Amino acid sequence: MPYRRLPNTDLARLRALKAAFDKGKVNYPYDIAYSQKLYLKIQAVLSQFEQTLSQYNFSKERQFSCSKLLSEHFKAARLYVSHFIQVLNFCIIRNEMKPAVRLHFGLSINDKTVPDLGTEPQLLIWGKRVLEGEQKRTMEGGSRIYNPSIAMVSIRFEKFVEHYNNHKDLLGITQKMHEKVLHMRTNVDALIVNLWNGIEENFNHLDAPEKRKACAEYGVVYVTRSDEKEEIE
């Protein structure tokens, strides 16, 4: 026997509410298959749910776009910070600088390696150390480093930080919108259950096939099991 299947996606939830509301609107307020109270509630909830989903999807799209830009600026900043540290080490190897200058950058005196810059938090730490360290070194009379210059490193790093902060803010907004959607889903699901119960009760006087057909016009969804031949129009 076909069974009723409640919506399990937001699009299906919207379809269920719209179908019941549109059908009810035609005959409101006298010949409607569910209560007027539910009709008014659907009218309010449907608009709010649509708006919330629209805001959530828009927030996700903005976050996705920002994420792509963040990835590009992360790669560029990591490259410049890494190259600057490598050039610093080359200068030390060529005896153009003393190993002790590494201390300005938070590096060990004899550490000839480039720190791990594989994550955004790591790049935030070492990018800041490179900028501050180079400022201290030059203020003490050290000659400037080129290819890359600290100015170019600064530009790339600051762009990365800007997009990192933007992405972080958008993540927070998207999370709040997601929580709002989750809360609304609970209320919408409860409303649909009450709505469909009321619609089915209204058509209890009909035989089973006619009842399902009448309820389906209000958006109630019935599914035929795979081992059953009956089809629901």
What report would you give on this structure?
With 233 residues, this protein is an all-alpha fold. It has helices at 10-27, 36-93, 120-139, 150-202, 208-216, and strands at 3-4, 222-223. It is built from five helices and two strands; from the N terminus they run E-H-H-H-H-H-E. A two-stranded antiparallel sheet has the order 1-2. The longest helix has 58 residues, at 36-93. The radius of gyration is 31 Å and the shape is rod-shaped. The mean pLDDT is 93.
What is the gist of this entry?
By secondary structure, the protein is mainly α.
Mean pLDDT: 93
Shape: rod-shaped
Catalogue the unreliable spans: none
User: What's the number of structural domains?
Assistant: 1
Helix content: 55-70%
Question: How many H/I helical runs?
Answer: 5
Strand content: under 5%
Jot down its keywords:
233 residues, two-stranded antiparallel sheet, 2 strands, 68% helix
Task: Furnish the topology, listing elements before pairings.
Elements: E1 3-4, H1 10-27, H2 36-93, H3 120-139, H4 150-202, H5 208-216, E2 222-223
Antiparallel strand pairs: 1-2
Helix pairs in contact: 1-2, 1-4, 2-3, 2-4, 3-4
